[in-house]
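Appendix B, Record 12. Input sequence as logged:
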Amino acid sequence: MEQARVKKRDTERSGRNLKGWLIGGGAVVVLAGAYAGGAALVGGQIPQGSSVHGVQIGGLDAADAAARLHEKLDPLATEPITIAAGEKNTELLPANAGLGIDVDATLAGQTGYSLNPAVLWQRVTGGESIEPVLTDDQDMLTAAVEDLRPKLDAKATEGKIAFKDAAVDYTAPTTGQTIDADAAAGSIEDAWFGATQPIEVATTAVEPKTPAAAFEKARDEQAKPLVKGDVTVAAGRLKATLSPAALAQAASFTVADGAVTMKLDNDKLADQVLEANPKMGSTAKDAKIILRGGKPAIVPAVEGHGVDTAKLSDKVLVAATTKQRTATVDLKVTQPELTTKKAKALGVKEEIVEFSTPYPTYDTVRTKNLRAGSAKLNGLIVMPGETFSLTKALAPITVANGYFESGVVEDGFSTTAVGGGLSQISTQLFNVGWLGGMDNIAHRPHSRWFDRYPAGRESTLWEGQIDMAWKNNTGHAVMIQAWVSSDRVHTRLWGTKKYTVTSKTSEHYNKTNPKTRYNDAEKCVSESGGQKGFSVDVHRTRTSGSETLHDSLHWTYQPWNKIVCGKDPKKK
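Logged structural output:
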């Protein structure tokens, strides 16, 4: 019986334990379900208090959080950013540099189911500031940085120094800069998002070739002392004063190998000394080739004395740094440039050619022009290889230079102009050049033929438009002799004859009859006309030893038309 009671109590105790276990287990299951449900609820939201770059997204689901971030942060990721390099700056669009923000990556892990108590606790009690996930394309960023160079790089400028009048004009060199591409890319990548201040990028200095110190040394030690006051050049009792302006005109600066050096032009200084005191110049006299008794003659050269200017520039530079500011030079025996020996070697010794043409003696004004032009040519020397230009020798053809207004032919009509008749001088000089074997450089025959000239072998002249020129190819100097006799104009060349010349003129051909033309010009001159127009050829042969040269001329003359002053009645 006792044993039976014991078993019964055990059974009762066991039943109570099972019932308690079932009740407790049920509670655990309920709690677990509630925990899991809470975890699911919390997992669908961004933790409370969370923010990205100041944008609050706590309590929002992933889609709403992403939408808010796009709304608030996309403008920051697309607005231009200012890039600064020293004092220069420019703007850069992030997209052009491959820079952007990845909103989805930024929100990754901020939502989602989790039973981790720590995660759940953090999501319930509060979030944190979340760093945005930024993206970049290194190739685009590198290219964008290179594109910034034209706006951020600065070339170094070289200094300049010169004299302006008698003052030193100095512009200091400047240091340039070039951006450090790798460092700049890193700085932009690190600070571009939401930057409120310019992003300063690193630069490397670009120095000018010549530093400012070199310019300043030349300015202070050479240039300023030079123009501080007058410099006196003394040779015995002779003196010449060079003003600061004169000294500055002779000065120049050389910039090379990082140094600046001032130098003086010795020839310019010598000219300035002679200008200041002509007595300090050489008294030597050149030999001269003149016409004496109608033939060339040599006036011998004469030695003289003058200032020795060989090292004048060095002496003036030294004098400019002294209190006395005086450069002492010596007097020396001076030689003429054209010695008697050189004058004889020019070979002006024989007649090469002579040519003459008749002139209308009744036109006394025209004759005055012939005499004026001949006087300017008489005795003129054309050096070996030199080109003789008649307009240059006669210019300016003005009343002030001794010329008169006389008859000319212009556009086929007779009229008047200052220097009328000088075309006969032009014809004279063309023919001595042609028959003397000179190289024909420039000439133009008249529009109509004047029978006092050889057809096809004559030349007009109009200052500034038509010249007559030939080149002296004889290897010796040539002297021009020109004069007007009572009825003819004469020209002769003296020198050393090189060529044997023959000139032949063709018959006149392709003749054209004169016509009647009307001229309503204010200075119209009526003409009766009559002479036919024609074409003509001239052939020349030049022989010198084994050398033979051939050249030809061709020209077509207009007829001497009948000129009626006034308007053509057939034309309205």
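The CA atoms of residues 250 and 265 lie 5 Å apart.
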